[in-house]
Structure formats: C-alpha cells, structure tokens
Amino acid sequence: MTDPIKIDVAIIGAGMAGIGAAIKLKEQGIDFVVLEKASEVGGVWRENTYPGCACDVPSALYSYSFSLKPDWNNLFAKQAQIQEYLVETVDQYQLRDKVHFDSEVQRIERVGEYWRVATAEQVYLARYVVVSTGPMHHPVTPCIAGIDDFNGEQFHSAQWRHDIDLTGKRVAVIGSGASAIQFVPQIQKHAAAVAVFQRTPPWVLPKFDRPLSDRVKKLFKKLPVLQRMFRWVLFKQFESLTKRLMKPDTRKPLQQLALRNLYKGVKDKALRKKLTPNYEIGCKRILQSNDWYPALAQENVEVFGGVSAVDGQALVDAAGERFDADVLIYATGFDVAVPEIGNHIIADGVPLAERWAGKPSAYLGTLTHSCPNLFFTFGPNLYTYSSAFVIVEAQLKFIVKQIKRSKASGKPVAVTEKVEARYNKKLQHDLKSSVFNSGCNSYFLNNGYNSTTWPYTVVQLDKALAASIHKI
Predict the structure, then answer these.
(1) Chunked in runs of 10, what are the mean pLDDT values of the chain (472 residues)?
(2) CB count, 10 Å around CB of 107?
(3) How many Cβ atoms from other residues are within 10 Å of residue 111's Cβ?
(4) Which of 285, 311, 327, 82 is nearest to 200 (CA)?
(5) Can you give the pTM of this predicted structure?
(6) What pLDDT is attached to residue 138?
(7) What is the pLDDT of residue 362?
(8) Whole-angstrom distance between the N-terminal and C-terminal Cα of the chain?
(9) Alpha helix (H) ranges present in 246-331?
(10) pLDDT at 136
(11) Helices in 28-167 by DSSP H: which ranges?
(12) What is the pLDDT of residue 166?
C-alpha cells in the first residue's frame, strides 16, 4: 500500500448524489476525490438492469436542475437512458479523472483532524467526507426454510442474470414491489408460467407515461426555459402530493384512482381481492404501472400468498399452495431502514451502526453527532415521494456552504448530540401521525421505528437546511 493521500474532501460513491457533490465542489475550487466500488459511475442505475426497469418520477424532474437533458425518450425515463445521462454528466463536467474506480471503501475512521478513509489498496486522509452510498444499495433476500435445497437458478432482481433465458420456464417471483411490477409484465410474455408470491399487495396508480416527440425535444433544446417551467410544474405537483398524503381526506382520491386502475386491469373478483391492499395509500411505497394488473390477469400467471417454505422445486405459501419452479427471482428490495455504511464509519472508536442500534438518525438527514466534517446525502429520514435529485440538491447547497465556511474559519462542521436529539424527537413525533406510520409493514420501518421517511415537503427541507447554516 502506498503512502496516504491527503485530500480536502472524500466523496463515497459515484451515483447521482456523489456526482452532484463532485460538480458542486469543483465549481467552488475545492479539492476532492470520488471513491467508487465499481468500474463505472451510476449507482443504483448502473446496478439495476432487470427488464422494464424505469423511473417513477418524470425525467424532467429526475435530473439535475443545472444539467437538464432536452432529449429524454419518455416522460418517465428508462434505466439505460438514466445511466447514460449520469455517464454523460460526468464527462461533461470533466470529473472522470477525479473518480477512483474499483475502490470500495472498507473503513472511515476519525483520526485527529482527519477522516482516515481506507480501501483495499489505498488510504486517504480527508478533512471532510461526503457519504453518498444511497439507500437502494444492499439487496435483501429472505430467510426461507428449505431454500438451500432448491436446485434451480435463483437471483435477486438487482443482480439480474441476463445469461438465463426465461423462455418456457416456470418462474417464481418473491415480492410484489417496485421492481416486480416492472419486470413481471416483461417476463410473463415468454415464461411458461409465473408465480408471484406476495405478503401484502401494493397500491398501484396508473402511470401517465408517453414517448416525447421530436418536436418536444427540439423545443426543449431551443428554449430551455420551457423545460424549466415544466420541471417547476412537476415539482409543485410532487410537493402537493406530499401534503395530500399527510391528510386522510385528501389522500382518498388517490386511493380511488388506484382502485380504478385495479378494476380496469383485473376482472376476476377473487384475484381482485388478493390484490386489494388493506392499508391506506402512502403507508408503503406507492407504485405506478399500466401493465402490472393486466399481466397478473393472464392465464400463465398466478398470485400466491407469502412464501413459507421451499420443498424441493416447490415454493409453498402460507395457505399450503405449491408452485414448482425452474427459476426463482427475489424482488425483495434493499436494506433501506438500516444503512449498511454505518458498519464502516467509526467515531470515537465505535461503529456508527452500533451507536444507532437499529434506529439511524441524522440532523436533517445530513449530520450526526460525534462525526464532525462528515455529511450524508440522502441520509436517515429523507425519503419522500418527490425526486431524489431535488432532495440531494437541497443538501448539497448546505454541504458546500458549510465546507467553505469551515475551511475559512478552521472550525469543524459539527452538530451536538443535544441538537440532533431535539430535532429527532420532533421528527419522530410528527411521523407518528403520518401515513408512513399508519399501521402497515413496510421497508420504511425497522421493528416499528421509522428512520427512512421525511413527512414534510422539499421546500421545508431546503428552508431548514438554509436556516441551520449559522446555527450549528
């Protein structure tokens, strides 16, 4: 191993948040390095390549405000084009020489006035660290009795096996969340049979997607102000959605829209019953699809309850119903509520995950006590139904200003345990009456504790971060 490299800022991860941080630091002339575990940028959009993978936020909003793309193919972009956009953005801002690829961070430890950031090959001494590892990072697979005896092919949707041809195969899918509703309609067309094993059905709204015409693309390119106006309208709509979801009366119309989507796509009453949620819309992640319900209504698709065991080639649900499978696909999501990065951040000799003890918290999702000069992007309790880009951009304004102030004053950026505790007490109080904590079992919660969602608007986050610049 070579001598440690001293750097102003170490950015962990080259997904959309890490790329955004790099752009904003470069604009301010602040020296940095981006440590990326893979051999290309993109994060979740590099990793997830399952059939039908796409965004559920319109592309005009799911992009950087300072780097709009006029030629999206669809109103809601597909995975490949989002990944292409992130790669193009890195090259446009000439960041590639700042990204150290194949450099997975193993340990981030506070040593004196530096953070010692260690990969397998190199140690970096950074005054500041921006943790941009993202919430959709580590795939989760359930513990199922007998799963080790299943001798067919099996894989997680986030690690799609493109070398396995599903044509004519009997495919079992565990889970009915965001990835399943996208890839099941695709594989159903070719598989001999598809079985979807679900514990609880999701609320699924129609997806108002459409291709963007060449005329619209040319207009956006010639008159960028039009795309900015469209982005602003979309932003306001998502802000309104957040407010509506926080009130029972105003979320009822959304629930009715989802029910109409179900009744339109599924005519069989017994199947409708299986697919009708027993919790309020918004409690779990709201999904969007026009082909999920029609796919489940096809003759070669069957919906089962949650998996209770695997018996040879058969998956068995809670009611004892069986399905013999050739291939098993886990659509079981990620460990969102308890970020794995907490195991690798050492403060005062203790891993952050140990201090969190299953209840991650950070002041405004960005700072946590005993970790001076360390920032999270999209940290605890910052999930909303808006765009991840607008959340991260709000954070980056705060982060860059704090780093500049700290460099000028020589004082570290830190939040006290008392301030963080007071903030978290109010946050958890407000979450108790929110739709996110209204009774369903979702990945927002860990043993009933919500360390994931933000029950306010993005504007409120932006204002809170701005007001905190001179307070901490």
Answers:
(1) 92 98 98 98 98 98 98 98 98 98 98 96 98 90 93 96 98 97 98 97 97 97 97 97 92 96 98 97 97 98 97 95 98 91 95 95 97 97 95 98 96 96 97 94 92 97 90 71
(2) 14
(3) 9
(4) 285
(5) 0.96
(6) 86
(7) 97
(8) 38
(9) 248-265, 269-275, 292-296
(10) 85
(11) 44-47, 79-92
(12) 98
**Helix, strand and coil percent figures for the chain, each rounded to 5:** 35, 20, 45
Specify the residue for token string 């010692």. 116
Half-sphere exposure in the Cβ direction for 404 (13 Å, CA): 14
At residue 1, the pLDDT reads 66
DSSP letter at 290 equals S
User: What CA–CA distance (Å, rounded) separates 468 from 472?
Assistant: 6
* 125: phi then psi, degrees, rounded to nearest 5: -105, 105
Phi and psi of 145, rounded to 5°?
-60, 130
- How many angstroms separate the CA atoms of 197 and 291, rounded? 18
Query: 80 Cβ partners below 8 Å, 6+ apart?
Result: none
Q: Which is nearest to 382 in space by CA: 464, 267, 276, 313?
A: 464
323 φ, ψ (degrees, to nearest 5):
-145, 120
Tokens of 136: 């959709």
Phi, psi of 226 (to 5 degrees): -65, -40
DSSP H helices in 269-326: 269-275, 292-296
- State the Cα–Cα distance between residues 78 and 163, nearest whole angstrom: 21
Residues 6+ apart with CB under 8 A from 403: 8, 9, 25, 30, 128, 413
What residues does 116 pair with on adjacent strands?
A: 109, 125
